[in-house]
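Hypothesis: this fold can be encoded by more than one sequence.
Test: take the structure tokens below, design a sequence, compare later.
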């Protein structure tokens, strides 16, 4: 079928099933969306064209922000139990895998806890993560089922699905109120909608080789999540064993001797041979879709933005996408938010995707600098024991300013009356906690082992040192709202006076801030009504109170 915009039909189409949300794509982003929607009581169906979860490791890092989201879903402990120990949160640079480090750097927020979060990121393979996400919800999942057409109606979208497991393929029609396309960088949904992309595009063809080899003695002595070498990159896959190599695809890939290629990259005289299990060839893409929404169809994850893997930002950006999107879908579907709220998904996440792409491309350039410096050293005869000074600080791999510091400006955020132009940056390595509206609520301890982030869920949260004064604000609206006590010791850090309050959205981002007492009996109600019913694309910083 030619690629074109989804067809519009004003007639009611006969369908085989109806759901609130159809999720296309069964990777980590689609599976996370399914779990989030189920927590909100939204009936979803997920379809994945492959017949099973991916057997390839693919993404290797679940960063600190994603682990906060999985903490909210009750999954963080299981993900951590299946992951590597924190000391693997490090990258090492070597001439060969068997060689000594000529440079190394820790992944901040993974190698050790950081005071800015109650969670810690982990090194784990995507094929180890996905089963945990699949088991986190009970809504229907159909493997081996591909979306081949979309028909837009006034009140929904009809998807034509084909079951590839049944011979010639049996077609079914499913009507959904909304569709979330999380079907990867080569998204069929995005192509069908004729949504263009911007960015460098295809950066090159690469190959991942999954193999077994007796490398435990090297890993145990100097653990790392990734070993960068002049002959490709290596990564341990699971705590109990297994490895992956990835690098540029050779010209005659069909006739490549993969066991020999990988074994030679171990280094001379190792006497170790790689037992190759699987080989996957793929294209490294770098782009952002020009639009994240087409009517009732919304793009998320790699379908919306393909991020090169250096720095581990791609999958994690997609997890943050659906964390932003799913509460908004729930509000519209449950009736306490207007459809215009969905406009803020693109308004908020599109700039983040562009910043993340720029950061990832910069990561790749810095990696090249390291390898080039090493090549120059060896050419100058400095010897294998010489060290390379890294072109970034030790905090570089944290990227906490981007991961934890992303700030949103949209109609779903009421600006602060004291906002200035010198707000904290949401790019680079440094993260400066802030309660400026639009930013992630900083982690503060409300009680032993209970963070401010643990107070958020399928509701809005009013954090205040004076709950009694604000309790009356809890009534009078259809939206879920809870009032939570904020200890006096945190007032200065939150920029509040003793009778002030913060209104925190379900995704943990601050929706409004009142530094002092409520300006009226209905201040919270007015703020929520404005944020949840507006159809304006964006709001000025001083629009709130």
């Amino acid at each position: 079928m030619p690629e074109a915009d989804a067809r519009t039909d004003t007639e009611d189409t006969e369908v085989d099933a109806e759901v609130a949300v159809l999720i296309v794509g069964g990777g980590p982003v689609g599976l996370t969306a399914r779990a989030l929607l189920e927590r909100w009581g939204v009936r979803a169906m997920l379809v994945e064209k492959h017949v099973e979860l991916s057997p390839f490791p693919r993404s290797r890092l679940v960063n600190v922000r994603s682990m906060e989201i999985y903490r909210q879903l009750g999954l963080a402990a299981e993900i951590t139990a299946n992951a590597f120990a924190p000391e693997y949160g490090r990258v090492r640079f070597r001439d060969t895998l068997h060689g000594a480090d000529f440079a190394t750097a820790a992944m901040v927020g993974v190698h050790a806890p950081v005071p800015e979060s109650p969670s810690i990121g982990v090194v784990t393979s995507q094929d180890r993560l996905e089963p945990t996400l699949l088991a986190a919800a009970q809504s229907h999942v159909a493997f081996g089922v591909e979306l081949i057409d979309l028909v837009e109606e006034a009140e929904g979208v009809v998807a034509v699905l084909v079951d590839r497991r049944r011979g010639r393929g049996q077609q079914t029609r499913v009507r959904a109120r909304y569709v979330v396309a999380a079907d990867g960088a080569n998204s069929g949904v995005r192509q069908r909608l004729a949504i263009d992309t911007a960015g460098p595009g295809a950066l090159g063809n690469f190959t991942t080789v999954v193999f077994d080899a007796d490398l435990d003695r090297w890993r145990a002595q100097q653990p790392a999540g990734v070993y960068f070498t002049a002959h490709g990159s290596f990564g341990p896959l699971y705590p109990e064993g297994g490895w992956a190599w990835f690098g540029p695809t050779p010209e005659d890939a069909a006739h490549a001797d993969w066991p020999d290629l990988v074994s030679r990259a171990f280094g001379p005289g190792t006497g170790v041979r790689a037992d190759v299990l699987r080989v996957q060839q793929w294209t490294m893409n770098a782009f952002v879709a020009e639009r994240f929404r087409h009517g009732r169809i919304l793009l998320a994850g790699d379908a919306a933005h393909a991020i090169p893997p250096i720095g581990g930002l791609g999958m994690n950006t997609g997890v943050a996408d659906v964390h932003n999107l799913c509460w908004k879908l729930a509000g519209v579907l449950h009736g306490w938010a207007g459809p215009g709220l969905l406009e803020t998904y693109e308004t908020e996440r599109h700039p983040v995707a562009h910043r993340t792409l720029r950061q990832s491309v910069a990561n790749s350039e810095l990696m090249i600098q390291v390898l080039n410096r090493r090549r120059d050293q060896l050419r100058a005869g400095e010897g294998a024991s010489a060290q390379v000074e890294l072109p970034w600080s030790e905090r570089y791999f944290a990227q906490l300013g981007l991961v934890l510091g992303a700030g949103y400006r949209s109609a779903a955020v009421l600006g602060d009356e004291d906002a200035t132009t010198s707000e904290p940056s949401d790019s680079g390595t440094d993260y400066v906690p802030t309660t400026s509206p639009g930013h992630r609520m900083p982690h503060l301890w409300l009680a032993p082992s209970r963070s401010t982030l643990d107070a958020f869920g399928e509701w809005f949260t009013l954090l205040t040192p004076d709950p009694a004064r604000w309790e009356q604000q809890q009534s009078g609206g259809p939206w879920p709202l809870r009032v939570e006590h904020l200890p006096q010791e945190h007032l200065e850090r939150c920029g509040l006076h003793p009778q002030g309050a913060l209104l925190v959205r379900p995704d943990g981002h601050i929706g409004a801030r009142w530094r002092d007492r409520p300006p009226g009996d209905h201040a919270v109600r007015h703020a929520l009504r404005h944020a949840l019913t507006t159809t304006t694309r964006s709001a000025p910083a001083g629009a709130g109170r």
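The first helix runs from residue 28 to 39. The mean pLDDT is 88.
Hypothesis status: open.
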